[in-house]
Write a structure and sequence with these properties.
About 20% of the residues lie in helices and about 25% in strands. The chain contains eight helices and 26 strands. It has four domains: about 160 residues, MoaB/Mog-like domain (Molybdenum Cofactor Biosythetic Enzyme, Chain A, 3-Layer(aba) Sandwich); about 55 residues, Molybdopterin biosynthesis moea protein, domain 2; about 80 residues, Beta Complex (Molybdopterin biosynthesis moeA protein, domain 3), CATH 2.170.190; about 70 residues, MoeA, C-terminal, domain IV (Beta-clip, Beta Barrel). Helix 1 packs parallel to helix 7 and helix 5 crosses helix 6. The strands form seven sheets. It has a six-stranded mixed beta sheet with strand order 7-4-6-5-9-8, with no helix packed on it. A six-stranded mixed beta sheet has the order 16-13-17-21-20-18, with helices on both faces. Strands 22-24-23-25-26 form a five-stranded mixed β-barrel. By secondary structure, the chain is of the alpha/beta class. The radius of gyration is 30 Å and the shape is elongated. The two termini are about 40 Å apart.
């Protein structure tokens, strides 16, 4: 298809920089491109039930609500003795362990108790083991603590953390390891989450090597190893990764036949002699939403709607540039907001930090610059060319540098990188 001069998503006219040769479509502003990627996803994918073991990385499709009070009974916070009333106390019973259900405690008596054990009915406090002294001859327990044993001391009362029916986490929260533990403590065996968007990765380029050092004019494929775990961290399910030759036919068939919710390609987004992605999209009847973004590195990235699958599921394609750092720029610009919205994840709020040194910018475009963060400050890293990954490997964030750059001491938005 031939792209029109207005955006099919919102009807707004594009601005003039970085138009692809032979195409009337101009580069999108970086923020606008991310907004289009987010909105073109439509509604999140359907909700599905998952066991706790299978829910990791999904987004909650409904709020997580407490199924019981937590703790569900008064609990000893320390090892020691459960005591009833003021001391000294006559010792009674063999002790209470976690997992047991104790009988009542009479006034003036005490019973040994372990941390996490239910407090017996009638107990008023727990006396820590280091604060108690036992007279074995009289079978009495004396208080040696600095102050009086007030009611409730070292008892975790029922419902201290939450009450049954209380909302714990909102819908859209990502199920992390911490959330799994919280859900299990609250009594859940299964969670209702959004289905992960499926992704098929097509790595394009005859020049790529899968093994060994670069040689014979060819380079190692860095994106094949880099992208699948990154995509998984964004909530996607990578259902396939394929090498595709620089040939229109195989690329067209791979795009046409893909069952994935999102097809991601690397390379072939510009207008070089073997860049066949635009021709492929025209031949399969795709609808271009973003064709080049005013960002460096990575401006020749694209986003398209593909024809739906036979069962009516919508499909999208994100075209990433072939240079590694440029591809990462495309990933965080277009793929990340698309995949997170499809998966039902809440949008993270912007993170703004202070530039510890000047952050160089492009004269006209947004620049995504690898940076190292320390406290509330960011420092730029070297080796930030579009074909380089050395700076990215050292970075824990990408600074979103506006045209013209950022002076030292000014604030700048940062995109946190996985694994930080």
């Amino acid at each position: 298809m031939t792209p029109s001069r207005t955006d099919p998503a919102d009807g707004t006219a594009p601005h003039a920089s970085h138009a692809r040769p032979g195409s009337p479509r101009a580069a999108r502003d970086w923020e606008r491109a991310r907004s289009i990627a987010r909105s073109c996803a439509g509604q999140p994918l359907p909700a599905v039930p998952r066991t706790l073991a299978d829910a990791l990385g999904h987004a909650l499709a409904e709020p997580l609500v407490a199924l019981t009070d937590l703790p569900s009974f008064d609990t000893a916070a320390m090892d020691g003795w459960a005591v009833a009333g003021p001391g000294p106390w006559r010792l009674s019973g063999a002790g209470v362990l976690a997992g047991e259900e104790p009988g009542p405690l009479a006034p003036g008596t005490a019973v040994p108790i372990a941390t996490g054990a239910p407090v017996p009915p009638g107990a008023t406090a727990v006396l820590r083991s280091e604060h108690g002294a036992v007279d074995p001859g009289q079978d009495l327990l004396y208080d040696r603590s600095p102050g009086p044993v007030c009611a409730g001391r070292d008892i975790r009362p029922r419902g201290q953390e939450c009450r049954s029916g209380e909302p714990l986490l909102p819908a859209g929260s990502t199920v992390t390891e911490r959330v799994l533990g919280h859900a299990a403590a609250a009594g859940y065996d299964r969670l209702t989450v959004h289905r992960r968007p499926s992704v098929e990765l097509l790595v394009l380029g005859d020049e790529l090597l899968e093994h060994g050092v670069p040689r014979g004019g060819r380079v190692r494929d860095a994106l094949g190893p880099l992208l699948p775990p990154w995509l998984h961290g964004l909530g996607a399910e990578v259902i396939g990764r394929h090498r595709i030759a620089d040939d229109l036919g195989p690329l067209r068939e791979a795009v046409r036949r893909s069952p994935a919710d999102v097809v991601i390609t690397t390379g072939s987004t510009a207008a070089g002699p073997v860049d066949f992605l635009h021709d492929t999209l025209r031949s399969v009847g795709a609808r271009l939403l973003v064709d080049s973004v005013a960002v460096r590195p990575g401006h020749p990235m694209l986003l398209a709607e593909l024809p739906a699958t036979a069962d009516g599921r919508a499909r999208r394609l994100v075209g990433l540039p072939g240079n590694p750092l440029a591809a990462v720029a495309g990933l965080v610009t277009l793929a990340e907001p698309l995949l997170r919205h499809l998966g039902g994840h809440r949008d993270p709020g912007p993170v703004r930090l202070t530039a510890a040194a000047a952050l160089p910018g492009h004269p006209c475009d947004t620049r995504l610059l690898p940076v190292f963060t320390a406290g509330q400050e960011v420092t730029p890293l070297p080796f930030d060319g579009p074909a380089m990954l050395r700076g990215l490997a050292l970075a824990d964030a990408l600074a979103v540098v506006p045209p013209g750059g950022v002076v030292a001491g000014a604030t700048v938005e940062v995109l946190e990188l996985p694994g930080r």
